[in-house]
Specification:
The chain has 314 residues and is of the alpha/beta class. Helix content is 32%, strand content 23%.
Length: 314
């Protein structure tokens, strides 16, 4: 039976949810919810409002494992877009594909396109993509432990041609993370987990990016540090006008700062919508925020996976 793409509630009908549920492969165009989204996500036809546009993207590992199965994602300038999902959903694969980190991972694009500011970039090399203003804060931080904090930050500026821009960017980084200025001569490997995450963000931010992609910034951090990291991320978006593509499993924190969100499962976008509507959606509240309809906490283990898929795709 052919796959389908549809919306739970008609976007033109009064009281429509504005959330799109999708289940189709690459040859199906996603249905777009347009009810009351003028302030959050302009119509796709207005190309100049889109910074990043991923259309029907299909990727494989080792030419065998189909990882992304026709996903479409859009990011507007100066907006935070969250990509949520469990392990293996395709979140990190999406970011790596955008970054051009494919050869070392044996990751190949088989269909679809990636556009950044109107330019097709899926065939570009990683350094060319960085030069265009796309930087990545990788999962697990991936700092250089043997180098000092200052040297790690310097590495993030390698694409810059003017040293004055780096000096200005470094001061901007220390403004958001003053603890790093205090420890600039210290080996990065001696930093705490939270400080290492700050350093990973700083290494990306010093390059003055147009789009910063953050992969699981809450991974392995204490709740108080997670709150601090997300608060600063929101400030960076607002004060620096940097668009952010935020990949997270912590849906509650991600939706606290994101303007729009996508839910990935098994390489497909199964749901998307503005932050407010996603937070109010029964499925999101139950399966990602751990709340029942009356607001009581519920264990994820209590709900069978097939029930969730049946509710979303039928």
């Amino acid at each position: 039976m052919g796959a389908r793409s549809f919306s739970r509630s008609s976007p033109s009908a009064p009281g429509g949810s504005g959330i799109v549920h999708t289940g189709g492969p690459a040859d199906f165009t996603r249905a777009l919810a347009v009810a009351d989204l003028s302030q959050t996500r302009p119509r796709v036809g207005v190309r100049e409002t889109l910074m990043l546009k991923i259309t029907n993207l299909e990727t494989t590992y080792n030419d065998i494992i189909l990882a992304l199965k026709g996903i479409s994602v859009e990011v507007q300038p100066k907006r935070i877009v969250a990509v949520l999902g469990s392990n293996g959903a395709g979140k990190t694969t999406t970011i790596n594909t955008i970054s051009g980190i494919r050869k070392t991972l044996d990751l190949a694009v088989h269909d679809g396109s990636i556009e950044f500011e109107g330019e097709i970039i899926q065939d570009r090399e990683p350094h060319e993509i960085v030069a265009r203003g796309i930087v990545q804060v990788p999962e697990g931080r991936r700092i250089f432990a043997e180098l000092t904090v200052a040297e790690n930050i310097l590495i993030g500026s390698y694409a810059m041609e003017e040293r004055k821009r780096f000096l200005k960017g470094r001061e901007r980084v220390f403004h958001y993370f003053p603890i790093l200025k205090e420890r600039s001569r210290q080996p990065a490997g001696y930093l705490s987990g939270g400080e290492q995450q700050m350093l990973a963000i700083s290494r990306a931010l010093v390059a003055s990016p147009k789009l910063m992609m953050m992969d699981e910034p809450s991974l392995g951090l204490a709740p108080i540090l997670v709150t601090e990291i997300f608060k600063i991320t929101g400030r960076i978006n607002q004060e620096e006008d940097v668009a952010i593509l935020l990949v997270e499993q912590n849906a509650n924190m991600a939706l606290s700062i994101a303007h729009y969100g996508y839910i990935l499962e098994n390489g497909r976008v199964v749901m998307e919508g503005p932050r407010e509507r996603l937070r109010e959606d029964r499925d999101i509240r139950e399966f990602y925020l751990g709340l029942t309809e009356v607001g009581a906490k519920r264990s994820y283990k209590e709900v069978k996976h097939y029930k969730r898929r049946k509710r979303w795709l039928s």
